Amino acid sequence: MVVTTSWYLTLAAILFSMGAVGLLTRRNPLIMIMCIELMLNAVNLTFVSLGSELGDLGGQLSVFFVLVVAASEVVVGLAVVVAIMRRRQGATVDDLSVLRG
Amino acid sequence: MDAAVFLISAAIVLTGAGGVLVARNPVHAALFLVQTLFGVAVLFVLQDATFLAAVQVIVYAGAVVILFLFVIMLLGVDRAEDLGVEPIVGQRPVAAVVGASLLGMLLIALLVSVDGPTGAHAANAPLGDAADNTRLLGEALFTDYVFAVELTAILLTVAVIGAVVLARRVRGPLAPLPVVVVASVADDGEQGDDGPPDVAEATDVSDEGEGA
Amino acid sequence: MLDLVWLVPAFPLAGFLILTFGGRRLGEPTAGWLATGAMAGSFLATAGAFYDLAGRDLHDRRSVTTLFEWVPAGDLTVDVGFLADPLSLTMCLFVTGVGALIHLYSIGYMHGDADFRRFFAYLNLFAFAMLMLVLGDNLLLTFLGWEGVGACSYLLISFWFTDEANASAGKKAFITNRIGDWGFMLAIFMTFATFGTVAYVDVLDTTAAGTVATSTATFIALMLFVGAIGKSAQFPLFLWLPDAMAGPTPVSALIHAATMVTSGIYLLTRVNPIIADAADWVPTLIAWTGAGTALFAATIAVAQRDIKKVLAYSTISQLGYMFLAVGCGAYVAAVFHMITHAFFKALLFLGSGSVIHGMDGDQDMAHYGGLRRLMPVTAGTFVIGWLAIAGVPPFAGFWSKDEILAYAWNESPLLWAVGLVTAVLTAFYMTRLVILTFFGRHRYADPRPDEVEEAWASAIAVAEEAVVAAAAALAAAVTASEAATDEPDVAEAVVAARAAHEAAVLERDGIVASAGERPELPALALYGAPDIGPVADRLPDQVATRSDHHPHESPWTMGLPLVVLAVLSVLGGLIQLPFSTATKRLEGWLEPTLFGNEVHLSVGTGTLWVLAAVAVAGGAVGILVAVAAYLQRRVDHRAFEQPILADAWRFDRLVSNFMGGPGRAGFEATANFDSTVVDGAVESVATMVKAEARLLRRFHNGLVRTYAAGVGVGAVGLVVWFLSRTSF
After folding, report:
1. Fewer C-beta within 10 Å: chain B N or C terminus?
2. What structural domains and CATH numbers belong to chain A?
3. What is the distance in angstroms between the CA of the first residue and the CA of the last residue of chain C?
4. Cα distance from C721 to chain B (closest Cα, Å)?
5. Could you report the per-residue pLDDT of C457-504, keeping only the tens digit for each?
6. What is the CATH number of the domain that holds B61?
7. pTM for this entry
8. Taking 50 as the threshold, does the pLDDT of residue C426 lie above it?
9. First and final CA of chain B: distance in angstroms?
10. By the CB < 8 Å criterion, does C701 face chain B?
11. B89 touches chain C (CB under 8 A)
């Protein structure tokens, strides 16, 4: 069997959906950020697959930048989580509803 | 041969993702995430994106996940989260619907379309083979996309400074975190007329605070 | 001079402003002379404009003087302008002329009143509003004057508002007028919708050219007729006019006889092209309403005891004649009767005011009698007015009433019959009024029923006291006899006391029995002083004061207008004598305003003579019957004064019951509908917003995951949308 692009894209779609479900379901902020990482990986996979199908280096370049931004986002996000969560043990995202209207 | 590698990598990726989803202990979840990242790195290699595969392992699996683990250890958030209870009414069904629809529609878009991706071939950045990948990437980055690279540098700097500022220890007494009982969507209606909770009134965890 | 026609309403307006803001320095009688001077100035300006207009060619007699633009509202522009044509100047002449005379009269009548200045300010304001009504060159300006005279009527009727009854009468007049105004307003709206303008020149010329649909013209004519019914006190909106007699008599003369009540007829005459274009039943309706009201009011006037109420119902009746004329297409006859009516009705009202002034405010004719010897000028002029209204030739009323009857015969013999019966009744009740007031014996010195009651009561009281005193004396004598038992004087004293007691009781019983058996005092002691019986010396002091204090004649400020109006009542017929086209001066003068809508008499001259003779005979019959009943003793007058007539056919009570019962239920239902349905609809919008907000607020729970779920749902939506737009 030849592995066509659509196999990769299918896999990426499944990975993305699982990341989305995880983001909506989990309460621990760190695990939620991990689910975001899953989604970003799915996107990276898509970029690379399509780049290789089209013979365009742009796919991999995009992944490069996505990687950088994801890394910095994780850094800042974890810093925020630390800043909030260090006050209380076992805190979950649901405890932060001060912005309710 | 490629197919076998692909299938095995796909299995690794998906089991890792499933593990992230259902792991109760955040450390386990981080490890499952590493598994997924490795799988994705293999898939990158299959696509002749060798540089990215290396970067994926070094940066993602090697730095980001380590950072996760550091934070987990720092905060002591190693207690298990109770996955059986979902306080927000309707969140799980909504999540299921969203996930299923996304998957369904993406699959439809990908598989039903006749012509496949319709992008044009690149004008100035042709894809080489695996050996040339790093060189070609470097050339493209530092000639055509050099501004973007500089901007990412600034971005990273800002992120580092921001993280340091956000996470430092503040001297003096800390303002207590407002305590709010998780209000489910169902009983919001009766409490609708009250204003936002008064921050000064909140106490710490052990108190049963009043829902605002 | 025609350019200065704006001076005509400007004089009374200036008078009003000076009197209002002039302060207390303008007391009596300066305020009165100032107001009269303003009216005189207005009359002179009108005379000048009249002279100018008469000098023009017959078909050029229409002049519009625009002062400024009043309502610039998109498609609707209304100017303040004055239309000086034969009809409006004729009305202005008698409004300002009669008005000036009444102002002069009021100086004498309101002498000594604390609100002298306010009275003349209101009178001038009224004159201004009336002149705007008549001179306005568009329906809106006429409506301004219409409302203005209604408001001034309210102010003047309730002039002595500290008395509750006067204030209520003013309110009644205003509210009843308002019902008519509703019709007028609808007519203005329809006029604007049909013609795009409300100016008379455009509307009437367009209508006369024949381009208006019958249904539109019918609607406008009908609504204007509703307005005219309210203002001119026809059935069923006549209720306010008799109550309006609560105002001072000059007010009754000016407003409710000569000017305001004729504005309805002026309006209908002004829009005669529209009436001509309306359906045929509209003029018939107008004619029958007028005739019916005339007869109805005349029957009521027969049984009234208040002199002003008789004149009020008489006014309603004569206005009915004018509507009858309009309905028969005889606009010239209507205007003619309006002019002569202004003369003789104002004369009659002012004369009655003079009588009331002389009788110190007493308006009950049962207390009058034989006043011609004490008030000769009043009596003489009043008799002239009486002859005019009774239709005795050659006085003014005969010519105008006869013309109306001729046109009524032309339209329908039944209408003529109703008019004739009304004429007979008019002659009857006016003769009755004159006889009761000026002829016969003096009744002002007679004791009144309540005074006789008082006398009897005092007699009985005295007798009672005598009985009580005698009983006390008896008791004292008995006590004395028991104390000293053997003295013969004491025993005699007891016997005497007992006898005295019995005598006193007998006398008291006798008086009580006489009081119970005494005959009823007659309502009108026409032929001899009432027999009071034994209590004649017990009458209260005011009876004696009354017989000493004679009613007196009025001062010259009141007498002069009476004389002038009497002269006009004699000569007024000259403007429209029916003998030939040359003598029909009024018809020729008014022709440009009639657009050829005047009906032509298809009755032969011989028939006209017969009709005139029958009318004169009918008037004579009325006069003779009244003389027989009230002056000679041939007919019992009580046969005519039925209680139901005195109660105005209980129409007032009918209206009150309706308004209090079903009317009130209707009002409350409407108010409930407004607060529940209309307000509820508005409030339900707010309620719905609140409910919706309460629903939506549940999504603002501040939880990150809910917002994330929202983002997810939105993303799914976007993808669905994009997918639906692609083709595979």
Report:
1. N
2. 5-91 (1.10.287.3510)
3. 91
4. 11
5. 888 888 888 888 888 888 888 887 777 766 677 777 778 888 888 888
6. 1.20.120.1200
7. 0.67
8. yes
9. 61
10. yes
11. no
